[in-house]
């Protein structure tokens, strides 16, 4: 469930656009006004505001935001304002660049979005970068990472509930055999993780657990410092229990010496309209402190206010 | 250009449906009537006829066709009647089955359809088989074939004209180096062929030709009997000169001792609404005989009439 709070009576898009334009005008910027508007409109509403704004003032709203805002607050507002598919395309592109490359972000986008959402990301990627997502991922990765990530971002998984228990059993066995032989990058392991539907994969991993006495991710911890194994475990988490994956990401981002704003902003802006309620619940349970409290304790100013608004703290 | 001929005045779909129903009624079947209707309606029109037919007579038109027709004629009518995305999903599924498996058909569908068409095939595959295309392809292939085919069927290539000449040069060099080392299944070779846009790939292969003195497919003929090399060459042909690929397929299907109806029917039914005019031109040039003549000489009866109608012989 989403944490985004949209007021019962939403002003007309033209009014929102005008208010935003005012917030940028004159000396200083009215950050609170920006938060009050953008952090309380859903994706469809933000798209219309952007359209109306650019028609009225001859400039993309994102360009204006870029001129007026800075640092973490800017990134949070900018990312959230983007349409979800465009935002993911942006994050994925960033993740293939030399200095911001991140296999985790690519995996996260590929595994926690629905099949159609992921396809929309690929379309948005074409439109914005004049290239395909998979070609950039393939070009910027090598070895085992490429073997895993290219099929992950290219997948169009079946999303029905139909599962095949016989197949689940036989593929659980394949996974177990390959993992026992430490063949973590085996093409059969990659095939199963990258092509099966989430429901089918879940059945397979349940069989794994039942038949072999422990969860697959425990067996994948053989070498706790192996980065590829870490990514494999995260992939499995994203595909089966995404809220636990995001909780851990938030926990590590916040507990780090010097908050990891990059990750914090990404999780909050991408999940606020999806499953942030569930992630907050998970966070509270695991950390004995609410996510609101944790974020408030670790961030400040407009950035803090933006994040708290997105995770549904306070009214709108 | 398509060869499909649609009459200037098309009867109402309800009338077409009624005529088809009559064609099936009583003793014997009126095959010519079936050809006159179905081989002269475009995909959108056939879809409406199918819908109207099933509403009026409580049976899918394809089921009726299946009851009334047989052998090669049935396959041709059935394949052509299907919506293009559904038809490709059907052909692709067939190509992953034990006794009808064909890596070539999978490659052909992946490489000669546009990115959006291929995505529609993947959607149709979900709807019909409750699985994803790539999961069946991955499950039913192994080794080098899997390495090539899974990314091919999962691709969503960029389709704009933008190309990067620097990249074309550097990737031409990579291809040349790998081919010189006989590393035909190298992951870089696979990456370039499966992710780059057709325009970009074309630029790369032009550089290859210019810089190294001959076409890549000549270098890929090192071992003329190697099946994987054959498939690689066909992949490159499909991506760059599909009409030449289809011409050769037709030539081999027709010249074979005992026509290869399976291939002949596939090419005619899948290309009649796309680029059959171009393929016919290519065929005539290469064989010094028109495709009409070649098909007429090699097939007979309703099957012959159906194919000739689809390649635009005679009036409608």
UniProtKB/TrEMBL annotation, chains A, B:
Species for this entry: Corchorus capsularis
UniProt-listed InterPro entries: Annexin (IPR001464), Annexin_repeat (IPR018502), Annexin_repeat_CS (IPR018252), Annexin_sf (IPR037104), AnnexinD_plant (IPR009118)
Domains (record comment): A pair of annexin repeats may form one binding site for calcium and phospholipid.
Keyword Calcium: yes
Similarity comment: family membership: Belongs to the annexin family.
The keyword Glycoprotein is assigned to this record: no
Positions with a binding annotation for Ca(2+) 3: 298
One Gene Ontology MF term: calcium ion binding
Keywords from the named record: Annexin, Calcium, Calcium/phospholipid-binding, Metal-binding, Repeat
GO CC entries: cytoplasm; plasma membrane
A biological process from GO: response to cold
Residues annotated as binding Ca(2+) 1: 24, 26, 28, 68, 254, 256, 258, 296, 299, 304
SUPFAM superfamilies reported for this sequence: Annexin
Pfam family, one: Annexin
Domain of life: Eukaryota
Record protein name field: Annexin
PANTHER family assigned: ANNEXIN, ANNEXIN D2
């Amino acid at each position: 469930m989403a944490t985004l709070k949209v007021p019962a009576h939403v002003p007309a898009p033209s009014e929102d656009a005008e208010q935003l334009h005012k917030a940028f005008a004159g000396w200083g910027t009215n950050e609170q006004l920006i938060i009050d508007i953008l952090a309380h409109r859903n994706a469809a509403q933000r798209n219309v505001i952007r359209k109306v704004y650019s028609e009225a003032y001859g400039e993309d709203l994102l360009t204006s935001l870029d001129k007026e805002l800075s640092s973490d607050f800017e990134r949070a507002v900018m990312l959230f304002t983007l349409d979800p598919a465009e935002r993911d395309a942006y994050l994925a592109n960033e993740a293939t660049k030399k200095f911001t490359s991140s296999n985790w972000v690519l995996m996260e986008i590929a595994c926690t979005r629905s099949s159609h959402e992921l396809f929309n990301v690929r379309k948005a990627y074409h439109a914005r970068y004049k290239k395909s997502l998979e070609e950039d991922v393939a070009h910027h990765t090598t070895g085992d990472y490429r073997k895993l990530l290219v099929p992950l971002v290219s997948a169009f998984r079946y999303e029905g509930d139909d599962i095949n228990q016989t197949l689940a059993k036989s593929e659980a066995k394949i996974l177990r055999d390959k993992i026992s032989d430490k063949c973590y990058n085996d093409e059969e392991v990659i095939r199963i993780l990258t092509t099966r539907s989430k429901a089918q994969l879940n059945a397979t991993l349940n069989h794994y657990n039942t038949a072999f006495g422990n969860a697959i991710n425990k067996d994948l911890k053989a070498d706790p410092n192996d980065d590829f194994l870490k990514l494999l475990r995260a992939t499995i988490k994203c595909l089966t229990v995404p809220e636990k994956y995001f909780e851990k990401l938030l926990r590590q981002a916040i507990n780090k010496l010097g908050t990891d704003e990059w990750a914090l902003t990404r999780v909050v802006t991408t999940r606020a309209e999806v499953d942030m309620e569930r992630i907050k619940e998970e966070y509270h349970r695991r950390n004995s402190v609410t996510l609101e409290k944790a974020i408030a304790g670790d961030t400040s100013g407009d950035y803090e206010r933006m994040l708290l608004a997105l995770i549904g703290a306070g009214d709108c």
